Amino acid sequence: MRCHLFPLIVVLVLPRVAPADDVSIVVGKDAIEFRAGPAVVAKYATAASVAKPYLYPVLAPNGVGVTRAWPVEKGLPGEASRDHVHQKSVWFCHGDVIPEGIELKVKSVNKGDKGVDFWSEAKDKDGTARHGTIACVNVGKPVPHGKDHASIETHNEWRTPDGTKIMDEVRVIHFTDGKEGRTFAFDITLRATVCPITFGDTKEGSFGIRVHDELRPQEKTGAIVTTADGKTVAPPAKDNMPIWGYPTDWIDYSGTVDGKEVGIAVFDHPSNPRSSWHVRAYGLNAANPFGRVLSLFPSQRDKTELLKIAKGGELKLKYAVYAHTGDVKSGKVAEAFDQFKK
Q1: Structurally, how many domains does the chain consist of?
Q2: First to last CA, the chain
Q3: How far is CA 270 from CA 202, 239, 305, 321, in A?
Q4: 133: closest CA among 86, 186, 73?
Q5: How far apart, in whole angstroms, are the C-alpha atoms of residue 315 and residue 197?
Q6: Is the pLDDT of residue 9 over 90?
Q7: Domain for residue 213, yes or no?
Q8: Residue 194 and residue 309: Cα distance in Å, rounded?
Q9: 15-24, 49-58, 182-191, 229-238: the lowest-pLDDT one
Q10: Burial grade of 312 (CB within 10 A; 0-12, 13-18, 19 or more)
């Protein structure tokens, strides 16, 4: 009797394991988490207690935080600054929003303002708020767009210090993860549902970030600030940098944090009203499409016409932050902007 031997083939059916770079968005009670694989790489604060929503932390692909932790977190190594408490990591607002036809019961602390100050978080000695709030009132379901891209829609109400709504906003955040960097793109729709809206003439705006202290182009750092036009600012730099108040497509801060080379850029979409940049050596990087002659932006010296939204109308804006490894070149900032503007 002949015995035939056949090879045994064992097929193992394993559960699918998502690649490490698969992105996801997880909605919590007071924050939205953005994840790359299992790692939380950013959180978007939506709690009723915050003056306006903000994105913190923001981690580059190597796990290094590129925005200032204070005042959200305190006592972290490498951080010493304690100025501008309202500059929380990444945010959008404006320092003078005028609700036409509505009498304001609480005035801004800034004497030149005619409307509501959403930029600062000023309070009287008794704790009474003198600033407006941007309240997140609804969060939609996360939407996947492939393994490296997901988005989520949120709804905000812009309110006076006494809680009166003056404007609605739809804000969609797109999260895209890449090898050199990750992009958080903000599609913003401002709707004048209550009254006509005028955006006042002030430098205090609008889509801003506060970079990590070690990314500031000051004497003790090797950080470099670079514009889309190739202009650079190196240490030691004064706060009123020569690039302040001029238009450009993007501005990047790059340097070394925790011994690793990283950077963060702000992108201004070509479809936006052209921004002048409120950018400081102490770490502020903000694109402002609303400031005119009173802002003292050099690019706005002869301009007085303010941007307005008629009642029932809307204004669409697009901005992004790009957190990357390496410097402005190896981090492929220009290439990331080209993808963003498509």
Answers
A1: 1
A2: 74
A3: 22, 27, 20, 15
A4: 86
A5: 10
A6: no
A7: yes
A8: 11
A9: 15-24
A10: exposed
How does 128-165 read in b/e, with b if 16+ C-beta sit within 10 Å? ebbbbbbbbeebeebeeeeebbbbbebbbbbbbbeebe
Domain of residue 48, CATH code:
2.70.98
Length of the chain: 342
Q: Does 111 reside within a domain?
A: no
DSSP 338: H
CB atoms within 10 A of CB 74: 9
Question: Residue 12: pLDDT above 60?
Answer: no
The answer to whether the CB of 205 falls within 8 A of the CB of 182 is no
Amino acid at position 234, single letter? A
Residues 227-246: pLDDT tens digits?
A: 999 999 999 999 889 999 99
Is residue 318 within a helix (H) or strand (E), and if so which, with residue range?
strand 314-325
Cβ 158 vs Cβ 169: under 8 Å: yes
Q: Does residue 265 contact residue 253 with C-beta atoms inside 8 Å?
A: yes
Residue 239: domain span = 32-106+116-340
Residue 2 covered by a domain: no
Contact in structure between 167 and 148 (CB atoms under 8 Å): no
What is the distance between the alpha carbons of residues 236 and 92, in angstroms, rounded to a whole number?
Answer: 29
Question: Could you give the percent of the chain with pLDDT greater than 70?
Answer: 94
pLDDT at 255 over 50: yes
Residue with tokens 């699918």: 16
Task: Specify if 56 maps to a domain.
Answer: yes
